[in-house]
């Protein structure tokens, strides 16, 4: 599943869903949690059910459910696990135990709904509670459904009683730099995609692009979008250039030609296994098979 850009859409707004469907995001996240007021949550579930039965699409259909402990999680899952659903975004998770629990629920619901077992994937917002910040080691034991991790600062800041999560220059304060880094490390340990959090100022395209370039440099492969105007910039920043892909193909081809070599010289520079892994990852992100 390609996940450069994931656009949030309130699950109770058919108009916004119709607009978002044509934006070009790799995935839409129909949100049953924060963007839906409590009196409209039941309606939002029914709307998601109806939208899931719509025509074929070229983007992944994801749903953010309400968190465990809200009393709404099972109702959300029972409503949305059906043909057409590609993935579930789990908010406010405290560690892999929450992922395993949701995964077990989905096992049963897929069978009941006639969905191919294992089709529905899981994504997690991994930094929204203080307990989550001390539970990252649990992600070293992978889950077969988990494909991506992202992070968030707002709920964590509220839980900690922080007055702000940003410095005067707009950069993250130290606790939230730690949260970002921990998410990146945990995703690596779990063998899943790391997705950067949203960029709040949807009118600042230059700032978004600069932030995306830093995220890609650090190892994130995609990003949450909070507004349709952000999608094109995110897609561009997380798509390897033609030059990047050409170079990656050369690295892969060179190692394939000398399978017993641990290091190789290419254009006067030395390359080893980490470079080969990075090259294969770049090609995979463009949909190329490099096995």
Question: Topology, please?
Answer:
Layout: E1 5-10, H1 14-20, E2 27-31, H2 41-52, E3 60-64, H3 73-80, E4 87-90, H4 96-113, E5 121-125, H5 130-133, E6 146-150, H6 154-160, H7 174-190, E7 193-196, H8 205-218, E8 222-225, H9 231-237, H10 242-257, E9 264-266, E10 269-271, H11 273-285
Parallel strand pairs: 1-2, 1-8, 2-3, 3-4, 4-5, 5-6, 6-7, 7-8
Antiparallel strand pairs: 9-10
Helix pairs in contact: 10-11
Q: What gyration radius follows from the Cα positions, in whole Å?
A: 20 Å
- The total domain count is 2
Low-confidence segments, given as residue ranges, are: none
Average pLDDT rating: 92
The CATH superfamily of the largest domain is known as Phosphoenolpyruvate-binding domains
How many distinct beta strands? Answer: 10
Oligomer: single chain
Termini distance? Answer: 17 Å
- Record the strand order, biggest sheet: 1-2-3-4-5-6-7-8
Binding site for substrate: 64, 128
GO biological process, one term: oxaloacetate metabolic process
Domain HpcH/HpaI aldolase/citrate lyase: 4-228
Organism: Bradyrhizobium lablabi
Describe the 3D structure.
There is one protein chain. The strands form 2 sheets. Strands 1-2-3-4-5-6-7-8 form an 8-stranded parallel β-barrel, surrounded by 6 helices. With 291 residues, it is α/β, with parallel strands linked by helices. Helix 8 links the parallel strand 7 and strand 8 (222-225). It has 11 helices and 10 strands.
């Amino acid at each position: 599943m390609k996940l450069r850009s994931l656009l949030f859409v309130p699950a109770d707004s058919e108009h916004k869903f119709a607009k978002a469907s044509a934006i070009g995001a790799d995935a839409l996240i129909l949100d049953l949690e924060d963007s839906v007021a409590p009196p409209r949550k039941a309606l939002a579930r029914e709307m998601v059910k109806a939208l899931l039965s719509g025509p074929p699409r070229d983007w992944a259909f994801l749903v953010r459910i309400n968190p465990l402990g809200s009393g709404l999680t099972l109702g959300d899952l029972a409503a949305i696990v059906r043909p057409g659903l590609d993935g579930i975004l789990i908010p406010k998770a405290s560690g892999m135990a929450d992922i395993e629990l949701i995964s077990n629920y989905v096992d049963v619901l897929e069978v009941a709904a006639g969905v191919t077992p294992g089709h529905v994937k899981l994504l997690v917002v991994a930094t929204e509670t203080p307990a989550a910040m001390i539970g990252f080691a649990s992600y070293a034991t992978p889950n077969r459904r988990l494909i991506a991790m992202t992070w968030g600062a707002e709920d964590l800041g509220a839980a900690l009683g922080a007055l702000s999560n940003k410095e005067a220059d707009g950069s993250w304060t130290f606790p939230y730099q730690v949260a970002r880094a921990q998410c990146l490390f945990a995703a690596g340990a779990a063998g899943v995609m790391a997705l950067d959090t949203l960029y709040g100022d949807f009118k600042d395209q230059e700032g978004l692009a600069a932030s995306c370039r830093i995220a890609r440099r650090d190892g994130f492969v995609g990003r949450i979008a909070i507004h349709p105007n952000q999608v094109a910039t995110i897609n561009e920043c997380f798509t390897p250039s033609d030059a990047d892909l050409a170079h990656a193909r050369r690295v892969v081809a060179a190692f394939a030609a000398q399978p017993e070599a641990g290091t190789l010289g290419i254009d006067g520079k030395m390359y080893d296994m980490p470079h080969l892994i990075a090259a294969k990852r770049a090609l995979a992100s463009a949909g190329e098979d490099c096995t």
